[in-house]
Amino acid sequence: MDKLDNERLGALIIAVAQGDVGAVEQIYNLMGRVMYAVAASYLRELADIEDAVQTALLTIVRKADRFRENKNAYAWVNTIVKNTALNLRAAKGRRTALEVSEIKQHSFSAEMMDEALFVRQLLSVLTEHERDVVYYRFWYGLSLSEIGQAVRKSKSAVKKTLDRALLKMEKFADK
Predict the structure, then answer these.
(1) CATH 3.50.50.60: does it fit domain 3-92?
(2) How far apart are CA 70 and CA 150, in angstroms?
(3) Domain ranges of the chain
(4) Contact (CB, 8 A) for 24 and 123
(5) CA distance 126 to 161
(6) What global pTM score does this model have?
(7) pLDDT tens digits for 1-60?
(8) Which CATH number describes the domain made up of 102-174?
(9) Which of 120, 155, 157, 158 is least enclosed by beta carbons within 10 angstroms?
Protein backbone atom coordinates (compact mmCIF):
# COMPACT_ATOMS: atom_id res chain seq x y z
CA MET A 1 0.00 0.00 0.00
CA ASP A 2 1.53 3.25 -1.05
CA LYS A 3 1.26 6.59 0.72
CA LEU A 4 -1.77 7.69 -1.32
CA ASP A 5 -3.69 4.47 -0.55
CA ASN A 6 -2.80 4.86 3.13
CA GLU A 7 -4.09 8.45 3.08
CA ARG A 8 -7.24 7.30 1.28
CA LEU A 9 -7.77 4.62 3.92
CA GLY A 10 -7.31 7.22 6.65
CA ALA A 11 -9.89 9.47 4.98
CA LEU A 12 -12.32 6.54 4.81
CA ILE A 13 -11.87 5.83 8.52
CA ILE A 14 -12.57 9.47 9.30
CA ALA A 15 -15.64 9.30 7.03
CA VAL A 16 -16.86 6.29 9.04
CA ALA A 17 -16.40 8.29 12.24
CA GLN A 18 -18.57 11.01 10.71
CA GLY A 19 -21.34 8.50 9.99
CA ASP A 20 -20.66 7.54 6.35
CA VAL A 21 -21.78 3.89 6.34
CA GLY A 22 -20.71 3.46 2.69
CA ALA A 23 -17.11 4.11 3.70
CA VAL A 24 -17.03 0.75 5.52
CA GLU A 25 -17.61 -1.04 2.22
CA GLN A 26 -14.85 1.01 0.63
CA ILE A 27 -12.48 0.09 3.46
CA TYR A 28 -13.34 -3.57 2.86
CA ASN A 29 -12.80 -3.18 -0.90
CA LEU A 30 -9.41 -1.60 -0.28
CA MET A 31 -8.22 -3.85 2.55
CA GLY A 32 -10.38 -7.00 2.50
CA ARG A 33 -7.84 -9.42 1.04
CA VAL A 34 -5.12 -8.20 3.36
CA MET A 35 -7.48 -8.36 6.35
CA TYR A 36 -8.24 -12.00 5.48
CA ALA A 37 -4.54 -12.78 5.15
CA VAL A 38 -3.72 -11.19 8.51
CA ALA A 39 -6.57 -13.07 10.22
CA ALA A 40 -5.53 -16.31 8.50
CA SER A 41 -2.05 -16.02 9.93
CA TYR A 42 -3.59 -16.50 13.40
CA LEU A 43 -6.61 -18.72 12.68
CA ARG A 44 -7.10 -21.97 10.77
CA GLU A 45 -10.81 -22.28 10.10
CA LEU A 46 -12.30 -20.24 7.27
CA ALA A 47 -15.38 -19.50 9.38
CA ASP A 48 -13.15 -18.13 12.16
CA ILE A 49 -11.21 -16.02 9.66
CA GLU A 50 -14.43 -14.59 8.27
CA ASP A 51 -15.71 -13.92 11.80
CA ALA A 52 -12.49 -12.12 12.67
CA VAL A 53 -12.67 -9.90 9.58
CA GLN A 54 -16.34 -9.05 10.20
CA THR A 55 -15.69 -8.35 13.87
CA ALA A 56 -12.68 -6.21 12.93
CA LEU A 57 -14.88 -4.16 10.58
CA LEU A 58 -17.35 -3.61 13.41
CA THR A 59 -14.48 -2.59 15.69
CA ILE A 60 -13.29 -0.13 13.04
CA VAL A 61 -16.77 1.41 13.00
CA ARG A 62 -16.87 1.56 16.82
CA LYS A 63 -13.39 3.02 17.18
CA ALA A 64 -13.24 5.20 14.07
CA ASP A 65 -13.64 8.34 16.16
CA ARG A 66 -10.37 7.48 17.96
CA PHE A 67 -8.37 7.39 14.73
CA ARG A 68 -6.16 10.43 14.16
CA GLU A 69 -5.23 11.70 10.70
CA ASN A 70 -1.52 11.57 11.39
CA LYS A 71 -1.65 7.84 12.22
CA ASN A 72 -0.73 5.08 9.79
CA ALA A 73 -4.22 3.92 8.73
CA TYR A 74 -2.96 0.68 7.28
CA ALA A 75 -1.17 -0.29 10.50
CA TRP A 76 -4.20 0.78 12.56
CA VAL A 77 -6.55 -1.49 10.59
CA ASN A 78 -4.14 -4.44 10.61
CA THR A 79 -3.62 -4.11 14.36
CA ILE A 80 -7.37 -4.31 14.87
CA VAL A 81 -7.58 -7.42 12.67
CA LYS A 82 -4.64 -9.04 14.45
CA ASN A 83 -6.04 -8.35 17.91
CA THR A 84 -9.49 -9.56 16.86
CA ALA A 85 -8.04 -12.80 15.49
CA LEU A 86 -5.94 -13.36 18.62
CA ASN A 87 -8.96 -12.74 20.86
CA LEU A 88 -11.07 -15.17 18.84
CA ARG A 89 -8.34 -17.80 19.00
CA ALA A 90 -8.01 -17.37 22.76
CA ALA A 91 -11.77 -17.58 23.23
CA LYS A 92 -11.96 -20.83 21.27
CA GLY A 93 -9.01 -22.33 23.14
CA ARG A 94 -5.85 -23.70 21.68
CA ARG A 95 -6.21 -25.62 18.50
CA THR A 96 -4.78 -29.11 18.41
CA ALA A 97 -3.76 -31.25 15.48
CA LEU A 98 -6.16 -33.95 14.37
CA GLU A 99 -5.78 -37.14 16.30
CA VAL A 100 -4.72 -40.18 14.28
CA SER A 101 -8.10 -41.80 14.91
CA GLU A 102 -9.85 -38.76 13.40
CA ILE A 103 -7.64 -38.90 10.33
CA LYS A 104 -8.36 -42.62 9.83
CA GLN A 105 -12.10 -41.88 9.78
CA HIS A 106 -11.64 -39.97 6.54
CA SER A 107 -11.11 -41.81 3.29
CA PHE A 108 -7.77 -40.38 2.24
CA SER A 109 -5.90 -42.41 -0.32
CA ALA A 110 -2.37 -43.51 0.42
CA GLU A 111 -1.19 -41.30 -2.45
CA MET A 112 -2.92 -38.25 -0.93
CA MET A 113 -1.37 -38.96 2.45
CA ASP A 114 2.09 -39.32 0.84
CA GLU A 115 1.64 -36.01 -1.01
CA ALA A 116 0.45 -34.27 2.15
CA LEU A 117 3.45 -35.58 4.07
CA PHE A 118 5.80 -34.43 1.30
CA VAL A 119 4.28 -30.92 1.28
CA ARG A 120 4.58 -30.77 5.06
CA GLN A 121 8.24 -31.79 4.82
CA LEU A 122 8.83 -29.17 2.11
CA LEU A 123 7.34 -26.46 4.29
CA SER A 124 9.32 -27.62 7.32
CA VAL A 125 12.60 -26.44 5.74
CA LEU A 126 11.31 -22.86 5.71
CA THR A 127 11.39 -20.24 8.42
CA GLU A 128 8.03 -19.12 9.80
CA HIS A 129 8.23 -15.90 7.76
CA GLU A 130 9.03 -17.81 4.55
CA ARG A 131 6.12 -20.20 5.21
CA ASP A 132 3.76 -17.25 5.69
CA VAL A 133 4.85 -15.72 2.39
CA VAL A 134 4.40 -19.07 0.59
CA TYR A 135 0.92 -19.52 2.13
CA TYR A 136 -0.13 -16.00 1.20
CA ARG A 137 1.08 -16.42 -2.38
CA PHE A 138 -0.07 -19.93 -3.22
CA TRP A 139 -2.86 -20.70 -0.77
CA TYR A 140 -4.55 -17.31 -0.57
CA GLY A 141 -3.49 -16.11 -4.03
CA LEU A 142 -2.26 -12.71 -2.87
CA SER A 143 -0.08 -10.57 -5.10
CA LEU A 144 3.42 -9.62 -3.99
CA SER A 145 2.16 -6.13 -3.10
CA GLU A 146 -0.67 -7.54 -0.99
CA ILE A 147 1.72 -9.90 0.79
CA GLY A 148 3.98 -6.93 1.45
CA GLN A 149 1.06 -5.16 3.10
CA ALA A 150 0.27 -8.18 5.26
CA VAL A 151 3.84 -8.71 6.46
CA ARG A 152 4.88 -5.04 6.41
CA LYS A 153 7.68 -5.52 3.92
CA SER A 154 8.38 -4.01 0.52
CA LYS A 155 7.31 -5.83 -2.61
CA SER A 156 10.96 -6.50 -3.49
CA ALA A 157 11.66 -7.92 -0.02
CA VAL A 158 8.65 -10.23 -0.39
CA LYS A 159 9.87 -11.35 -3.82
CA LYS A 160 13.32 -12.14 -2.40
CA THR A 161 11.77 -14.07 0.49
CA LEU A 162 9.52 -16.03 -1.88
CA ASP A 163 12.41 -16.79 -4.24
CA ARG A 164 14.57 -17.95 -1.32
CA ALA A 165 11.76 -20.14 0.02
CA LEU A 166 11.10 -21.74 -3.36
CA LEU A 167 14.82 -22.41 -3.81
CA LYS A 168 15.00 -24.07 -0.38
CA MET A 169 12.02 -26.27 -1.20
CA GLU A 170 13.46 -27.15 -4.59
CA LYS A 171 16.78 -28.18 -3.04
CA PHE A 172 14.95 -30.28 -0.44
CA ALA A 173 12.83 -31.96 -3.14
CA ASP A 174 15.95 -32.84 -5.15
CA LYS A 175 17.46 -34.77 -2.23
Answers:
(1) no
(2) 21
(3) 3-92, 102-174
(4) no
(5) 10
(6) 0.58
(7) 678 888 999 999 999 999 998 999 999 999 999 999 889 888 888 889 999 999 999 999
(8) 1.10.10.10
(9) 120
